[in-house]
Write a structure and sequence with these properties.
There is one protein chain. 41% of the residues lie in helices and 17% in strands. The protein has 11 helices and 10 strands. α2 runs parallel beside α3 and α10 runs antiparallel to α11. The structure holds iron/sulfur cluster. Iron/sulfur cluster binds next to loops.
Length: 304
């Protein structure tokens, strides 16, 4: 096929595949280089106070026929890639809410068109994991679901409740342990400033307490994002919730990292929204990262 014609068709296919997301595609930070496959639109829970990602979007499950059509298009688009596609990410707020048989069928379709696939990742809510039996998780692991990104956010029940996360710290622990039991790799999202100024210390201390009991392969540590359409903004306006300053966020991050006693896990705080970008392995790089945060705390203190 002539080069120009290929580009034209590939562009058209890309637009068609990702149209339901209105150019807003959110994927887990460790998985940004994967191939993205739409399987759900929106979030089936959609009640978190701080979240504005899926407001006014009705949760939808994409049909297997449409998924297969999209896989054919993705196969066409990637046909000249130098490296074979090995990593997929399922799109949507919480694709793991789908029935296990449906997910297994999605995996079968992915492998039909991309036989070299090594793993399939996706965002996941903790309660979606808790609803699956041990046997279902084994089946998912066997079907290549092996890099889930769990929205843990905090280890404090008070803060999780305030942010209407719909799960407790105990649920967070139970879900992570359940995945570990079937040896399914997962990363854990943690949010700095999730409890505002009032619960900043509690957020750091309780989150570290929870994390010291589990073994994700990566911690993705981000600053709380203030979505313009999130209900949390009303609480910011009324003063009920006080945002952390960059300095306070660094102080919270320092305390969290200081309290972490984890092994063989990447501490990844490199999101563009973080006050400073740091990344390193625990425990080897803990002191280097602490020194870097400390240096920046001094810098930000001088700016006051
Ligand atoms: S934060 Fe995640 S679980 Fe909560 S409403 Fe948004 S997409 Fe859904």
């Amino acid at each position: 096929m002539a080069n120009r014609e290929f580009i034209k068709r590939a562009k058209k296919y890309l637009e068609e595949i990702y149209k339901p997301y209105n150019n807003k595609i959110y994927v887990p930070m460790p998985e940004t280089r994967n191939l993205f496959l739409p399987v759900t639109i929106g979030c089936s829970y959609n009640k978190c106070l701080y979240c504005g990602l899926n407001k006014n979007i009705r949760f939808e499950k994409i049909s297997l026929e449409e998924i297969e059509e999209n896989l054919k298009k993705l196969q066409f688009i990637t046909q000249y890639n130098r490296r074979k596609v090995e990593k997929f990410n399922l799109l949507g707020g919480n694709p793991l809410v789908l029935e296990t048989e449906y997910l297994v069928e999605i995996s079968r379709l992915i492998r039909k068109y991309f036989p070299k696939v090594k793993y399939i990742s996706s965002f996941s809510r903790v309660d979606d994991i808790l609803r699956k039996s041990h046997e279902e998780l084994v089946l998912l692991k066997e079907s290549k679901f092996n890099r889930l990104s769990l929205g843990i956010e905090s280890g404090s029940d008070k803060i999780l409740e305030f942010q209407r996360k719909g799960v407790t710290s105990k649920d967070n622990l139970a879900a992570m342990r359940k995945l570990e039991k079937v040896k399914l790799d997962y990363s854990a999202y943690i949010i700095l400033g999730f409890g505002g100024v009032e619960y900043s210390r509690e957020n750091a201390i309780e989150t570290a307490r929870l994390l010291n009991k589990v073994h994700p392969f990566e911690l993705v540590v981000v600053n709380l994002v203030y979505f313009p359409n999130a209900p949390l903004l009303e609480k910011v306006r009324t003063g009920e919730f006080k945002r952390l300053s960059p300095l306070q966020s660094l102080e919270e991050e320092y305390l969290l990292l200081y309290k972490l006693e984890m092994e063989n896990v990447v501490f990844n705080a490199t999101h563009k929204n973080n006050t400073i970008a740091i990344k390193g392995k625990l425990p080897e790089h803990k002191n280097i990262m602490l020194k870097e945060i400390e240096k920046n705390i001094k810098k930000y203190s001088l700016k006051l």
